[in-house]
# Entry
Amino acid sequence: MVIRKPEIVPSSEITPEHLYTNRRQFLFSAAGVAAGLQVAGKPGAYQVNETKTPEKDVTTYNNFYEFGTQKDQPAKTSSGFRTKPWKVSVEGLVKRPQQYNLEDLIKGFTLEDRVYRMRCVEGWSMVIPWMGIPLASIIKRLEPLPSARFVEFTTLLDPDQMWGQQRGNLKWPYVEGLRMDEATNPLTFIATGLYGKPLPPQNGAPLRLVIPWKYGFKGIKSIVKIRFVEKQPRGTWEIQAPDEYGFYANVNPEVDHPRWSQATESRLDGTFISSFSKRPTLMFNGYGEYVAQMYSGMDLRRNF
Ligand SMILES: Nc1nc2c(c(=O)[nH]1)N[C@H]1C(S)=C(S)[C@@H](COP(=O)(O)O)O[C@H]1N2
Ligand SMILES: [Mo]
# Structure
């Protein structure tokens, strides 16, 4: 079941009432704000009030190396990807290691809407309306043991379907990891849909991670394994180029990628001006008030 929540807007952003020709619409949105605040608790974080990236761009400008390294290739070459049935194996330091049918793993949860600002190492950003379930809810259901300090995620390995895996340009299958507090942060999300529809293959169907304060590569797609571990996992990009892609990958305008600055970004919002101009990149992609405390005392230049 999909429950649509009203878009939540900070009160400072609401147009004064007298500017509205349609008073009824204003009253509706004001009521929506009040209801949303009660439900979400973190309205500014869960529902970014910025122009959304058009669905067309979200679904045709992708990184998914299993379906090619060019941004338009995943949309063009993943259409027959089979996502039913889909099994997710839960392993490691967890009460009941077992393989779940995806439906059982997410049974009973209400799909939530989250509009998140997303930032990619390559210098572009998007604002995407996702649908899904907080990872914290799923982890709670899985009951990891106290000794679990990290969670490792793995993408499907299936070179027949994922033609990019027939190449050796990355170590397959794709792997990513989070520290337990990052994984259970209320912002960390398992997306199963976007723009109100099930995820298309190119965006990581049937389930993928979304971690809005980190660079896009942490958002692993088409997950088939969740493993709770004691030691910090090594992600695919970290293995590939450890001096370019760290474990943490927190969006940080002050830490340059070795080959380019990360201080600015171009926003894909459907306008020519945004996609061809630069705007400053925000620390933690603008989510600092919700996540910075997890990294207090850490040197974020070393832990990039
Ligand atoms: N399995 C897998 N997951 C992946 C990738 C990939 O190549 N393979 N690319 C990552 C990178 S670099 C980015 S920027 C995001 C892009 O997600 P999107 O195409 O939905 O915007 O997916 C991430 N997840
Ligand atoms: Mo990326």
Residues 62-66, 120, 155, 174, 203-204, 216-217, 219-222 surround MTE (ligand 1) (CB under 6 Å). The chain has ten helices and twelve strands. The radius of gyration is 19 Å.
